Request: fold
Amino acid sequence: MKQSRALVLVVLPATALIALGALGWWLLASENQLPPRSLAAPEPEPIAALPSQPAAVAAPTPEMLFASEFAKAPDEAAKLTLLDALPAKTWAKATDRVLADCMQRGESTAIRARAFDVALELTKRPQGDSKAAVLKVALDSHHADVRSRSLRECRIDPQPEMLEELLSAVRMGGTDRYLAVHALAALEDPRAQQSVLEAAKDESLPKPERARAIALLSRSKLPEAVDYLKELAAKQDAEFAGIATQALAAIQAAQTARK
Reply:
C-alpha cells in the first residue's frame, strides 16, 4: 500500500510537467501560425509651403518726399522756403504731418508761425481739412505762442466744434485761460456761457482777467448772468460795478434791436 502511494506521488508531478510542456509547445506553435500583423502605412510628410514672394515696396507719397526734404533742410531759412511752397502743391493738406509737427514741436517761433499760417491757408481749399481741425492741432502744441494763436482765432471766428477743447483749456488755467474764456463767450452753447459766468464770479482770478469775463457777460443769454450783473452793478466796487453797468446796457440794447 505504501509503495502505491509513493508511486502516485512520483507519477503525478511528472504527468503535470509533461502536460505543461505540451501546453507550452502548443501555444508556441499556434502563435507561429497566426497571420503577421499589418503595419500602418506611414503618413506622407506635409509638403513645405514655398516661400511667398516679398511684397512690393510702395512708392513714397509726395507728402513723404516733402517730409524727407524738410528734415534734410540745412537751416531755418530753407525750411521757411519749403513751407511757403506748400500752398502751391495740389496734394498738400492743412493737417499734413510736417505742418502739425512744426506747430507742436517746431524749434523756432518763425517756423511755428509760418506752419500755422500755411495750415490756415490750406483750409480754404474746397473739400479740404476744416479750420477747427487745424486749431485743435495748434491748441495741443507744446508752445504757448501757438496755443495763443489758436485761441485768438477761435475768438475771431467762433468754432463750435472746439467746445470741449476750450472748456478743457479753461479748466487747465494758466495763461491760456482768459483767451479760452473769450473764445467761449463767442459760442451760444449753454455750457460755454456757463463757463464764462463762472470765470466772472471767480474771485481768485487776477483782477484784469475777471474784469474781462464780466464784460463778456454782455453776450450771454443766461438769465443768471443778467442777475449777476445786476448784483455787481449795485455793489460798492466802482471798477466792477461800472463794467457790470456797461454790460447790462449792452444786453438791453441788443434786446431792443431784436424787437
Observations:
- Confidence is low (pLDDT under 50) at residues 1-17, 19-39.
- Residues 13 and 19 are 10 Å apart (CA to CA).
- Residues 2-33 form the longest helix (32 residues).
